[in-house]
Amino acid sequence: MKRTKIIELLQRTDYGTQVTVCGWVRTRRGSKAVNFIALNDGSTIKNVQIVADVERFDEELLKQVTTGACLRVTGTLVESQGAGQASEIQATEIEVLGTCGADYPMQKKGQSFEYMRQHGHLRLRTNTFGAIMRIRHQMAYAIHTYFHKHGYYYFHTPLITASDCEGAGQMFQVTTKNLYDLKKNADGKIDYSDDFFGKQTSLTVSGQLEGELGATALGAIYTFGPTFRAENSNTPRHLAEFWMIEPEVAFIDLEELEDIEEDFIKYCVRWALDHCQDDLEFLNKMIDKSLIERLRSVCDTEFVRLDYTEGIRILEEAVAKGEKFEFPVSWGMDLASEHERYLVERHFNKPVIMSGYPKEIKAFYMKMNADGKTVQGTDVLFPQIGEIIGGSVREEDYDKLMEQIKERDIPMKDMWWYLDTRRFGSCPHGGFGLGFERLILFVTGMQNIRDVIPFPRTPKTAEF
Ligand code: 4AD
Ligand code: MG
Predict the structure, then answer these.
(1) Which of 49, 165, 343, 388 has a beta carbon 3.0–4.6 Å from 206's, enabling a disulfide?
(2) Which residue from 223, 244, 437 has its CB within 8 A of the most atoms of ligand 1, so it is best to mutate?
(3) pLDDT digits (tens, 9 = 90+) for 257-303
(4) Burial class (CB in 10 A: 0-12, 13-18, 19+), 180
């Protein structure tokens, strides 16, 4: 008989029907006469209860029904006698598809997240990681739905690139050269002419530059793909490999860009509230008691729009009143997570969209303000997370863009194609990047970014 997914089974009330379910044993308890098996198949956080009358089954078979074992169970769907579930299965056949010994690492409840990371290949079988992965799927679906509905095209940008979009030099090189025997030129520099691509290439830190080519042809595009950063920051907010969503839109100004950021992120959070109720309730109970309330509040409040200069003034005022920050506050500095969180969680108590940053702390492509000092960059700062989105209106003026490229010594040889967008029919445009895992952190209430991606890549760890 074809198996029924547990999520569907638990909706059914056609008691008396024969059903088959498959899944992994969460727990088995019971008496001499009857065993109760909680079975989970990953389709929902909820388990189905299997009732097995001991006399109907071989003793040796029931001994194999241990935590983690994989079963196929056929039986009758019945209305449950016990509390906690509406229906259960009165088993007639139990087949052990895969036994699971006492050395199963996910056996005990309440293991630390650090322990789970060390067993990352099996942590997916736990309630918490099941919930997170289902929410992750829902968020990806929400993102595609949002952009599709708003007329953006899903645009695929390359993962291997010769340009450093953010100019921060945090790239992983891609090469087929023999690292033990590198050909060097007369200056002692590596000669890449015989490398696979005939030049130095890396994994992308952002699809934005190619995304701009798409937007200035198709009007509005978005990317959604893996992104790589060799930043040696071992923090709960950084991954070396993460997923980024980068919409890019022609003919918009800063205010319209910020409107999209706010509308988009609220749509995603609302989607989670509407489509992930069971998993969110579980996480709210087990991980963070204020999670659902925080998600609701983000959907219902208007984000603060804050100029960088005003933000610095607020932080300086806080310092004057005795607030202690690890990093000193002054105009021109890049905000640290503690500053962002002070503004969002303590001062405004709402998400903040900040703009008007000093040009020195932002990338070359951002549109210059009339003051010649600040740029139209916009970061969305979130409670618990800090920066969740980074974006900007782009400099569409060829000469001004060239000035910034020269000021920063950006090598021109791999940028000519980007500059062509400003030479041939240049247009005002802008976009942003949302860190997918930062969104998942926010929506799940988890504390560490390593726990919201199936297989995290961070400095010194590339296991599984
Ligand atoms: O602020 P970032 O560096 O901006 C860009 O890359 C732009 N090119 C985006 C654009 O305008 N199209 O990165 C964007 C977002 C951050 O706000 C953060 O959410 C996430 O990407 N992010 C990371 N997430 C996890 N691990 C890392 N190491 C991250 N670096 C950035
Ligand atoms: Mg940023």
Answers:
(1) 165
(2) 244
(3) 999 999 999 999 999 999 999 999 999 999 999 999 999 999 999 99
(4) exposed
